[in-house]
Design a protein that fits this description.
- The protein contains no helices and 11 strands.
- It is mainly beta.
- The strands form 2 sheets. Strands 2, 4, 5, 6, 9, 10 and 11 form a 7-stranded mixed sheet that branches. A 4-stranded antiparallel sheet has the order 1-3-8-7, with no helix packed on it.
- It is globular, with a radius of gyration of 13 Å.
Length: 128
């Protein structure tokens, strides 16, 4: 497992943009697929987006496709979640996740159980 640290959350208005960042603590990415999930009180953790270790492929939940973009800079050892056209329903704690895999299809990794490593979460609040 790898320790992850998220940053970039905050309070924004509907329609605004926000970028989250996630970096491993004390080690490099290696062949880690990276993902973002979100969770609101009383609900299960929900898949948002994932990116392959090479950055060559990405996968999104339908609710964010076209608005959110996941990317990674392996030289900086950082993965990003660019969130545009934010809505009130995007309000949640956002979690970064990692799994050492170079072959598993991202579309088969939408359950939190698929990801062994997690960050502590960062709050995103969209409100006018």
């Amino acid at each position: 497992q790898v320790q992850l640290v998220e940053s970039g959350g905050g309070l924004v208005q509907p329609g605004d943009s926000l970028r989250l960042s996630c970096a491993p603590s004390g080690r490099t990415f290696g062949t880690y697929a990276m993902g973002w999930f979100r969770q609101t009180p009383g609900k299960e953790r929900e898949f948002v987006a994932a990116i392959a270790w090479s950055g060559a492929s990405t996968y999104y939940a339908g609710s964010v496709k076209g608005r959110f973009t996941i990317s990674r800079d392996n030289a900086k050892n950082t993965v990003y979640l660019e969130m545009n056209s934010l809505k009130a329903e995007d309000t949640a704690v956002y979690y970064c996740a990692a799994k050492m895999t170079a072959t598993q299809a991202l579309g088969t990794m939408q359950s939190p159980l698929d990801w062994p490593s997690w960050g502590q979460g960062t709050q995103v609040t969209v409100s006018s």
